[in-house]
Predict the structure.
Amino acid sequence: MGATREWREKIEEASEGRHGCEQQRIAWIGMAWLCLLLGKNSDYGSSAWKEPVLCPELDAGAAILVRMSDKIERLRTLLGQSGGGGAQIATETIDDTIRDLGGYCLLYLARPQREQPDQNMENHQVADAVPPSPASA
């Protein structure tokens, strides 16, 4: 997979600071976030992609959208925009909520598709799901 090699090279260059401190910060935060997401996915046993126990009629995509809606409501609460007067949630920060929301966005994009029973990424055109970089466009 040529795309995987290209992605790794871009991330390595950015994380080493070869494209400036902004790109380096994005790479570091992105890698830490991805590690967190992979750890949570492992801990929860890919539960985001399983049929919801209480709403089995929902597919993985719809179930993830519901979770994203919950996170948006949590964010509104943390920002004081929910009519609750800015109730504070002692165990979750705005950054935590945004990390989780971003994780659900990635899970949504990576969700299994019903028309693709073989979920081995080697057999799919993952590169087609990612926009080309400006240099290769």
